[in-house]
Each structure stands twice: as C-alpha cells, then as structure tokens.
C-alpha cells in the first residue's frame, strides 16, 4: 500500500477495512494502510467526528444503526446457544430472597429458564413470554407488570408499568438491549421500552447487568437507556474482539464471558 495516498483515499481504505472486520486495532489499520499509527489515530478522530465509526480503546469499531424492533421469533433464532449460556450465568447470580427486575427480550427470557424452580425470589418483568410460558412451570413468583401489550416483541410497556416499578426496589436487574457502544451507551428501538429500562435501573439497589450476545456490540438503536459506565456487568459470549473487552474494562465494566463450546 502506497504511503502517498491523500487523506481522503486513506480514510476510505480505513472505512473499507472496518466495514469488513467490524472492529480493528490501530496496529491492524496501520499495517493494512501502510502508514504510521499516529496517522491512523488522526484519521480515526476525523472519521469519528463524521459519524462513520467509533473510536475505542486502541482502535475503532463500526457503528451500525438498528432503528426498528425485530420480531421476537426472528431474534430468538439468532445465537440460541450463546443466549442459553448467558441466561444460565445470569440466573446463577440470583440469591435466595432477591427481588429482581428483568426486561423483555430473547436473552432475558433464558434467565427465567435457568432459575431454580423452587427459588425463594420474586421477579418483576414486562416480558410476557416469561410470564405466560415459563410462569406455569416454576414455583418462584413472577409478577407481570401491567400496561400496553406489544405482541411483536412480547412485552408490556406504558404508564401502568412505570407506576408499578416506581414503588419497588430491586436487589438485581438484568437487561437485554439492542445495542451497546462506548459512545452511545446501551440503546433500544422504542421509547416505551426505554422508559421501562431506565426505571428499572433507577430502582435497583445492587447489580445492574446487561445480558447480550456479541452481535449487539457496536450496534446503535434509537433510545439510550444507560451510559456504559452506569452498568456494573456485561454478561456475553466469547466472540467479542479483545479490543471490545479492553474498551469495556476501561470504563470499569465487569465483563463476564460465557463459552458455548464448554457446555455441560
């Protein structure tokens, strides 16, 4: 690669590389474009200002927009084994006597499947799958929040749910999100779901954990529910790039990696 490229050509090559790889270190880009790491850092700064990518710890990541809610069934078939492992680990963190908030989503639904059936806990949720399908199989208490039913994502939202949550304090909260990014935080597609998640975070006395597979890293949806440094833990799978892990740790997020290859 020629070192005589003008900045516009160089930045285009950087974009092509990141579009292909989704995430890249400064060293990777320096080798691919054949310029110094200092030059790459300046180019990344310029590209970030243009909204074309997001700089991370030691590199950059492609920002991908996710504006619309996808159907529950469509999301459920994506990374099922990863979601199962993530849900199992999250469930293992719940202790006897806990009051727990869990929002809607296919990964959060897996948490309900892995909580011991006779657990002495109470879960408040807007996840109708958990309430109607899992609730009949378990002995622990599941309280479905009232509100408007969204059949597309199997969730309830609205002022009734918000009002109910405002009267409760939880020991732990587990949240599914549609995007997580250092710059844009944790995001979801709709404001009604965002209101639920924000209230859950505000009413939690202890652990706030995001549960999501690696595909949500770098995704940006419409409504921010939390800055990255507002969450305590990210429970995810082992497909995250090391740069993503380092970037999250730099924000004091405890990143828990589950490994679907090591199933029981």
From TrEMBL:
PROSITE patterns reported in the protein's UniProt record: HTH_DEOR_1, HTH_DEOR_2
InterPro entries linked to this entry: Carb_Metab_HTH_regulators, DeoR-like_C, DeoR_HTH, NagB/RpiA_transferase-like, Tscrpt_reg_HTH_DeoR_CS, WH-like_DNA-bd_sf, WH_DNA-bd_sf
Start and end residues of each HTH deoR-type domain: 7-62
Keywords: DNA-binding, Transcription, Transcription regulation
Entry annotated with the keyword Transmembrane: no
Keyword hit for Cell cycle: no
Protein name according to UniProt: DeoR/GlpR transcriptional regulator
